[in-house]
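call fold(seq) -> tokens
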Amino acid sequence: MVKQASGDGDQALADSAEAVRAYLVAARGGAPLLSSADALVLRGWLVRGVRIGAIVRAIDLVAARRVAQRTRTPLSLTACRAEVEKQQKRAGAWVRAGHAVRVEPPAPDDPRFAALDALAAGALAELAALP
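ret:
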């Protein structure tokens, strides 16, 4: 488990670490505490800004691979390190590709958005009528 510290940023890190720890415990079916090596790896990822989704996906992929290979050693975050790095590289490439795409806003008279505008106006009217 990761020690909680004061401050909003520290609390966010502690909450993220607890979420990853709980997911890892559920994935491996027990052993509710992180080893010191796993705690250091997790802290490094969270401080670097690695998304929890990338960590969880890596845990799932490594766990599935270990089941297929019938590996009997316990699942750990240290074992997921390479997969997390791969997830980060893929996410980075996706974000870079997204920045290259230029999206133009729709024209105000575009008929495809007329139904959407009507729905939005109706929803706003309903919200305004609420006490």
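The longest helix spans residues 8-28.
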